[in-house]
Amino acid sequence: MRSASPTGIAVPATRGESRFHSAATQKILAFGGLIGLFIAFSLASPYFLTFDNVMGILLATTVNGVLALGATFVIITAGIDLSVGTVMTLCAVMMGVFITNWGLPIWLGLLGGIATGAVAGLVNGVTISKMKVPPFVATLGVMMMAKGLSLVISGSKPIYFTGTPAVRGLTMDSVLGSLIPGLDVPNAVFYLFAASIVASLILGKTILGRYTFAIGSNEEAVRLSGVNVDFWKAAVYTLCGAFSGLGGVIIGSRLNSAQPALGAGYELEAIAAVVIGGTSLSGGEGTILGTIIGAFIISVLTNGLRILSVPQEWQWVVTGGIVIVAVYADMLRRRQQGRAVFEGGDQALLRPPDPKRGQEVDASAGG
Q1: Cα separation, 63 vs 254, whole angstroms
Q2: Which of 101-105, 186-190, 321-325 has the lowest mean pLDDT?
Q3: Pseudo-torsion of CA 41, 44, 45, 49, nearest 10°?
Q4: Which of 31, 334, 356, 359 is most exposed, with minimal Cβ within 10 Å?
Q5: Which domains are delineated in the chain?
Q6: pLDDT at 365 over 90
Q7: Average of pLDDT values for 285-296?
């Protein structure tokens, strides 16, 4: 008997398959790890589980979480985007130019910042899909270009939003706090949750989401079935760029300025959040919920180690070790899945997703 995966791969259901390796179990384990970190740091320091510190963790997760949402789509296609951090900076700078230098309305400046990210993502997508440049090289080049453009456009100086205090209020004010006194949760936190809901709907309910999984599972089979893989791959990178643009808007508002030298290292944290959340670097598997959990794990870990006065270099060592463990666990899971398929004497088949019905059908079962 076969079970169809979200990628369109019909995988034989064998007794050798373990629930430990299921996507649901991975999310449960990641969430359990997050709770474990909360408990451990709460016992280690009385300053960890305080309202102000928890709000600080939530606020610190907003930017990294939004960047990780876009990276999730790219990594599910078995790609990589190293430019999300510097593209975020470029988007913040362009928002500063639109609002402060050009005097455009705030809402137009925000849209301009997000559009800048979408254009950068489109450049990545076209370079990778049409020019056949490897994703690592293409996005590395765009990363360097975005960094240079940020410095050139801003004149290597920060662009401040002091003349438009409403910009900072977009993220740092608290609508919830005005409704419920004492519960001053920054608006930026709700932007992250709203972006997560949108990303989840796109990934799970749209044609783009289905082709994202299909391309990551078997790109050549999708291409041979008549799907315009180049178009959908470019669309995925454009979407990733739009999320980077949103991240730029959030961080620019949060800092009340566009810092042209900011952005380096954010791409590594975003990718780490995606991997820790259970998305496979081999492509074809991943969830938005897992990515958000991964982003919170990194924020909690960084915050807790900082409260315990652990040097920053050791914080990077611990985070890097967790990423290695997460990738190794994914490799073991895939090996066991491959072994189960081989021992079952069956072969995974792919049929292109049906956009009308929104479900994959096993070709060998007669469609």
Answers
A1: 10
A2: 321-325
A3: 30
A4: 356
A5: 56-333 (1.10.3470)
A6: no
A7: 93
Q: Which amino acid is at 161?
A: F
Give the pLDDT score at 339. 64
pTM, two decimals, is 0.86
Helix axes 229-255, 51-76, angle to 10 degrees: 160
Residue written as tokens 């470029």? 90
Most distant CA pair in the chain, distance: 69
Residue 361 phi, psi dihedral angles, 5° rounding: -125, 140
Nearest in space to 255 (alpha carbons), one of 70, 69, 60, 108? 60
Distance CA 107, CA 54 (A): 30
Distance CA 229, CA 150 (A): 32
Residues 6+ apart with CB under 8 A from 44: 304, 308
Alpha-carbon dihedral angle through residues 285, 289, 294, 295, given to the nearest 10 degrees: 130
The alpha-helical segments, DSSP class H, found in the chain are 23-44, 51-76, 84-96, 106-129, 135-154, 166-172, 175-179, 187-205, 207-224, 229-255, 266-276, 288-307, 312-343
CB 221 within 8 A of CB 232: no
Instruction: Look at residues 304, 360, 365, 338 and name the one whose alpha carbon lies nearest to residue 39.
Output: 304
Instruction: Answer yes or no: is pLDDT of 34 > 50.
Output: yes
Q: Which of 284, 293, 304, 303 is nearest to 326 (CA)?
A: 293
246: pLDDT strictly greater than 70 = yes
* Helix (H), strand (E) at residue 180: none
The number of residues in the chain equals 367
> How far is C-alpha 319 from the geometric centre of its chain's CA atoms?
17
